[in-house]
Amino acid sequence: MEQISYSVRRSERARRVRVTIDATRGIEVVLPRRAAEREAAAAIRELRPWIERRVRELDRARQTVAARANTLPYLSQTFQVVPEPGRVRVHRRGDQLLVPADRAERDPALERWYRRAAQAEIAPRLDRACAAAGLRYSRLTIRGQRTRWASCSRSGAMSFNWRLLLAPEPVLDYVVWHEVCHLEIMDHSPRFWALLRWHCPDYREHLRWLRRHGATLVL
């Protein structure tokens, strides 16, 4: 049986052993500060089927991203990426994104552009959904979370991942409704899913899409 390569990271905040798999960082075992080193190997053995399945999913995701060539998704659209020497900021021109020619500058510039676009796309959707549900949120933040697409705090603070703009538009709308429903019900009880189904009847389809294709939502 082939050995699985992984790294180990100690965390003061971790309460249990956790295994994460990331397209760029690979397989990482997070250990609580006092956990024995052997617990990392034990976790890898126990989770081996899941790890192998997840690695295959990430390989397929890399192939999907590579197949984009010089294009990028934007909700339900596709933009042509056009490098321009001397450019430092991304600018949209029709169905083109004019980007820095230097690859080292391009991805950070694209992320900044997508973050600004996420604020502009998500805020009105969130406002409409809250108005329809008769609910209110306290503030909206756009972030780049590694493990979450969005979150809603008990104070009504909303946080959304800018990478959602790389998904189809109905997927973004589903995530907005998911968080709006958390303004009323903070857990994932049957009451929550029933409320979400009322506002977003086809939520299961979009949830499945995120689970299957979420790893492709990268630049």
What composes the largest sheet?
Answer: 4 strands, mixed
Q: What is CATH's topology name of the largest domain?
A: Zincin-like
Using the alpha-carbon principal axes, give the shape.
globular
Distance between the termini: 34 Å
- CATH C-level class of the largest domain is Alpha Beta
SSE string, helices as H and strands as E: EEEHHEEEEHEEEHHH
- Residues in helices, as a percent range: 40-55%
The CATH superfamily label of the largest domain reads Metalloproteases ("zincins"), catalytic domain
Secondary structural class:
alpha/beta
Mean pLDDT across the residues is: 93
Main sheet strand line-up: 4-5-7-6
Report the strand count.
Answer: 10
**Can you count the helices?**
6
- Low-confidence stretches are none
What is the CATH architecture annotation of the largest domain? 2-Layer Sandwich
Number of structural units classed as domains: 2
Q: Strand fraction band?
A: 15-25%
